Amino acid sequence: MPNGWLAAELSTSACTRYTMATDAPAAPQKINLRRPDIMEAVQAQVLSHYRSELVDRIRARGHVLSADGLTIKLAKEFGFCYGVERAIDLAYAARKVFPNQPIYILGEIIHNPEVNDQIRDMDIKFLSGKEKNADIDDLKKDDVVIIPAFGTEIAVMEKLKARGCQFVDTTCGDVMSVWKRVRQYANDSVTSIIHGKSWHEETKATSSRATASGRGHYLVVFTLAETDYVCDYIINGGSKTEFLEKFKGAFSPGFDPDIHLKAIGVANQTTMLRGETEEVQRRLRAAMEKKYGSAELEKHFRFFDTICGATQDRQDALEKLLAQPLDLLLVVGGYNSSNTSHLAEMGEAKLPTYFIKNAAKMVSDKLIQHYNQHQHKEVETREWLPPGQITVGITAGASCPNNLIEDAIRRLFELRGISVQELLAAN
81: exposed, middle or buried (C-beta count within 10 Å: 0-12, 13-18, 19+)? Predict the structure, then answer.
């Protein structure tokens, strides 16, 4: 148990929940970890790890830096969003408040390997993943557990509560807004059709809220092709066995497409492409209208826009950047980051795009190692950086810190034999 000002608070509950979100679900006790004395130290530490003075200076110069035939153009919006910053702040604050106590985290706090390595360096132990340090069954009463920004499934939370754990909940507010929506669908006997990745932590957490009342059901669709399959089934029916096999692992226990597709409500993983989610919504709406008629549509179909604002801002900013003359695009971020992968998809549709997790992947001006989303692995491309006058666009997902973006910028100029420090000093 910690001492001092916190001890009295903690002694009142074996399942205290630490959070900054005032609209989060009720808990026995709440302690705001953003006390001025704690956060002053935390902010200094976070800035030392992730801030980039170079990126700040390029932003102030109109998001452009040029020298000797190489022009770098940054998207107007990129990198850490508020939800990510908040999650990291809370994790760092937890270590300040509990300096000598074991702290655990359910999984990656965000999808960026460098950030998660920093969390490990703070001796915060992971409860999942390839480098996990412990299992939930190893936890003891009053152990501190960090809930990542994606949230977690209700069953996991209940298991932690049963063990008497304390929580530092960093779940993003936008994610909790989706939870509220799918809970409402369930209360109204409306099946949640969730546009997302059924294997993603956020979608798993959302799905669990759809069934929490014991009345709700959900179905996760990932692609427009899957959406079209569902639409055809709504209109024409089909083989239930084939349907359930096709969506195995992506629907609620007891889900029956002949029963639970009669009233549906669309939600989504917050980091999906807005345009694709809107198309999922449009196609499902059209199917329900064709099946039940316009006059009855409200009884059978609902929709609520749950795309994260920061995700959309980064997609909009990239769209504007791609409208400018560019020779290639670098997308910097974790390979398992959903919002970053969608930025790479946008780039790939327009021009040569390289999805890299850090600057070291730019091995030379002749060789780059980058992630291929279609092959689900890192690949190598040669002769990737053209000689002569070129313009390179750079963006990054909401989980990518500015220091990694700075590293990429410096590496690009380095490959052209240009010192960024000398360049900035001369201007």
Answer: buried
- The answer to whether residue 53 is catalytic is no
Catalytic one of 77, 114, 202, 276: 202
pLDDT in tens, 322-338: 999 999 999 999 999 98
pLDDT of residue 421: 78
Give domain 175-307's CATH architecture: 3-Layer(aba) Sandwich (3.40)
For 147-174, letters b (16+ CB in 10 Å) and e give bbbbbbbeebbeebeebebbbbbbbbeb
Instruction: Provide CB contacts within 8 A for 270, sequence distance 6+.
Output: 172, 174, 175, 178, 202, 306, 307, 308, 311
Q: How many CA atoms lie within 13 A of 238 on its CB side?
A: 16
- What would the pLDDT profile of 124-145 be if each residue is shown by its tens digit? 999 998 888 899 999 998 899 9
| Residues of the chain with confidence (pLDDT) below 70 | 1-32, 426-427
Q: Where exactly are the structural domains of the chain?
A: 4-47+82-172, 63-80+310-425, 175-307
